[in-house]
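Note to self: keep these together.
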Amino acid sequence: MRSTRSKLLSRGIAAAVTLPLLALAACSYGSEAKDDTKAKVAAGSEKIDGLDSVKIGYFGNLTHATALVANQKGYFQKELGATEAKYQTFNAGPSEIEALNSGSIDIGWIGPSPAINGFTKSKGTNLRIIGGSASGGVKLVVNPKKIKSLKDVKGKKIATPQLGNTQDVAFLNWIADQGWNVDANSGKGDVSVVRTDNKITPDAYKSGSIDGAWVPEPTASKLVAEGGKVLLDESTLWPDKKFVITNIIVSQKFLKEHPKAVEAVLKASVETNKWISANPDEAKAAANKQLEADSGKALPADVLDPAWKSIQITNDPLASTLNTEAAHAVKAGLLEKPDLSGIYDLTLLNKVLKADDESTVDDAGLGVK
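Structure:
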């Protein structure tokens, strides 16, 4: 039997590290992104694996920049040929995992916590992490009038996106490292941890109902635009200042039956990341344009610019940090120790990277045997 805390985690941790800035979902899974993919299909192209379409999911967050840019610039469609790239946008991890399990999407960009939770709940049968996408982009932003140093966080009200999500677990772990005590489930203790949806966190900050927030981008930069101060960048707590914020997952069934299609999507991802690195300003504009297309609202420059700078695009899933994030959840009492063996299958990604003369990546011993 799962413990009460584990049940709470299954509702919370799957909400994902990259929770929504924008309200995108219009149905139970997400909303179809507006696109003109048919117009981008090259004449004479052939279908991959005989598929009419490949269904790709992602969040309307800058931490999903690879998917945003690849959609906007047509990289997915280019690699899929006459197989149509179809898109769904999501605003929470559980709905994307549900969509993957039901076949509503085949491949998705998602945070580490829902990937861990989806994998463990299915006893390792529903998904594989097949690549990385982004690192960083998480900050502790506070009201500088109330909090002037890290020790001042004690006794204050600090928001995280959701019980058991990646930022929530990271903040609880940081609190414990300070020697302070907080009940993980209630959020009560030496610090009041206030679980607040990212959509309303800026308003909660403006109203004074919270004193700060441990949140991903671009929510962090929205708080700064409202007068907040970055007190801590989570990247400073990790070796080499790198930790996974977004991974690429695939249905195990789809991976087994359509490896060529999966390889095509991974090739598009690698090519997109290369283009982003070479053209950061154009890529930033492309990501924002896709956000606007998906949601009807682009980010203002005072939010977009600092948020973009704090996110590192990467092909590496940073597997060792996923294991550490799971250990933090166990330490907080929000997760029973998971068996993550087999959560990664980086075979196709490393094939693509080798063909592109790029460095291959490691699964930290958590790959398919």
